[in-house]
Specification:
Blueprint: H1 5-17, H2 20-27, H3 31-45, E1 50-52, E2 57-59, H4 61-88, E3 93-100, H5 107-118, E4 122-129, H6 131-139, E5 145-149, E6 157-165, E7 167-172, H7 185-188, E8 193-194, H8 202-210, E9 221-222, E10 242-245, E11 256-260, E12 267-274, H9 279-294, H10 305-308, E13 311-313
Parallel strand pairs: 3-4, 3-5, 8-9
Antiparallel strand pairs: 1-2, 5-12, 6-12, 6-13, 7-10, 7-11
Helix pairs in contact: 1-2, 1-3, 1-4, 2-3, 5-9
Length: about 325
């Protein structure tokens, strides 16, 4: 049976001092207790480690060998303890995140970057996914976490509000409405309105189209052939508007701008985690909560909402 590590660490101090009085003072225990520890250690090993006399301590051949071999062994053991503690705290392992493309301009990169920088032991991988697939994929464990726009339905998950943002429209800088700091919903409805493909995100599609439900005449909606055109070609006609959250400002293509819609309810972005959460999931929650607070993603919400206000799915 291997000796206890405390006695082994005491022995190494004694091997350096070669004096029980000085070693006991350095360790912070009584000299008789140190002597008893050393006798027990020798008994466990079945060999003498020390030659004692009234004035000094001399290491035996076995004691010299132990003094040379123990430090790297203890260092390796310390690393093993640290590894176990880090894993138990969710700071070690592989983290798989799925995010909807609409969160990829700002929110997802900010959270992924913070996770990487705050937990060097984590290997973080993030991939874009179709929004309706994220919650089921989190629930069945194929990914560890999801970032979605809108409160997506799904069983076996818990959703945490990560960000709330104003709704506005993307439009060409030379559009007639671009000169207004805010745009009336009724005024926006007089122009062609581009909405994302409903299959890509039914929740947000329906929320955006509902903004114009009461406008007359009925607005002219259309869905682009390419759902995520980075150059926003269809807006360059100077007529078409694209309802979008304010995060769109961070990835504006040249010649375009964004204006808020007056009186429009906000869009939300949620962190999706499995209902049963491991230390890794709790680590993600903690980091995401801190980030949301620091970046004022939820300016009117206390940080405690992550515990009290989370909503389970299904």
């Amino acid at each position: 049976m291997a000796p206890d590590t405390v006695s082994l660490r005491y022995f190494l101090v004694l091997a350096q001092e070669l004096n029980f009085t000085r070693a006991a003072a350095r360790i912070g225990i009584a000299q008789p207790a140190l002597s008893a520890r050393m006798r027990r250690l020798e008994s466990e090993l079945g060999t003498s480690l020390l030659v004692r006399n009234t004035r000094s301590v001399v290491l035996t051949t076995a004691g010299t060998a132990l003094a040379e071999s123990a430090p790297p062994a203890l260092a390796a053991l310390d690393r093993a303890w640290d590894t176990a503690r880090n894993a138990g705290a969710g700071e070690l392992g592989t983290l798989r995140i799925g995010y909807s493309l609409s969160t990829g301009a700002e929110t997802a990169p900010a959270l992924v970057d913070r996770l990487i920088r705050s937990s060097p032991g984590l290997v973080v991988g993030a991939v874009p996914m179709a929004t309706p697939e994220i919650s089921p994929t989190v629930a069945d464990g194929r990914i560890d976490a999801g970032i979605t726009r809108g409160e997506q339905p799904g069983r076996g998950v818990r959703r945490f509000l990560l960000r709330r943002m104003r709704v506005g429209v993307l439009l060409a800088q030379h559009h007639p409405l671009a000169e207004h700091p805010e745009i009336e919903i009724a005024d926006a409805a007089t122009y062609p309105l581009r909405l994302p493909d409903r299959a890509a995100n039914p929740v947000v599609h329906d929320q955006l189209s509902a903004l114009f439900h009461d406008t007359r005449p009925s607005p002219r909606f259309h869905t682009p052939a390419v759902s995520f055109d980075m150059f926003q070609r269809d807006l360059r006609d100077g007529l078409t508007l694209a309802p979008a959250g304010e995060a769109a400002v961070t990835a504006l293509a040249a010649g375009l701008t964004w204006r808020p819609l007056q009186g429009a309810p906000g869009l939300t972005i949620h962190l999706v985690l499995p209902r049963e959460q491991s230390p890794l999931h709790r680590r993600i929650r903690t980091i995401a909560k801190t980030l949301a607070h620091e970046l004022h993603w939820l300016p009117d919400q206390a940080p405690e909402h992550w515990t009290a206000g989370s909503r389970p799915g299904g």
